[in-house]
Amino acid sequence: MATLNATKWGRLAMTGQSTHAAARDSATANSVSVDPTFSSAAAIQYKKQAGRSGNVYNLYRSYYYFNTTGITGNVTDSSLNIRGVSAETAAVRIIPSTAFGGDGSADIVATDFDNITFNGALGAAGESWNDGANNELEFVDKDNAEGAANAAIRDQNYFICAVIEYGHDWRNVDPGSAVTLQAGINYAVAAYLDYTEATSGYANDIMGVATANIGKVINVATANIGKVIGV
Known about the structure:
There is one protein chain. The chain is mostly beta strands. The chain has helices spanning 20-24, 148-155, 166-170, and strands spanning 2-5, 8-17, 31-34, 39-51, 54-67, 75-88, 92-96, 134-138, 158-165, 179-186, 192-197, 216-217, 220-221. A hairpin with a 2-residue loop joins strand 4 and strand 5.
């Protein structure tokens, strides 16, 4: 198994809204935390509460960017790992995102709040949360190298995702009564990908030298070699 820490991360929130749609479907956040190192019970949150003038809705989402340029082989047995803290009432789901400039070239910004794909779920539906330990969120088809998350980790130079509340944010369901669902995160502990990478590149002996002892052939890394003189 190998691990890769997140390079950038952030928390975005849309709070104080009068309807479910105004909070969930907003094009921008009204609270932005760039690479936070604090702990927060409201790292992932869906909240509906009664106010003096009607209902008030708050949504918090967490986003992660990983630089995956060093991963070239097939990826399996993959998961996203996040340290929990303070609250564990929300079930969560990992979904694709185009935050961080779409490729990690920028820090997270308010308009990234809506840069997510609800119908492209990367993680299982409604994963439970542990507020006092590492949360290992397995990717859908984690053992299939061509699964959505595994293929993206292998084929792109970046992997970007968001973790959101499942029951009302992802499912787009306005609860009938007041509710507070939260998954707390200790952002000071780096989130990371855990995965197995298959050996890639040329895998045959050359002139009696075992492939395990060959790093390059004529200054080309073996990972980038498919054949040597047609073999």
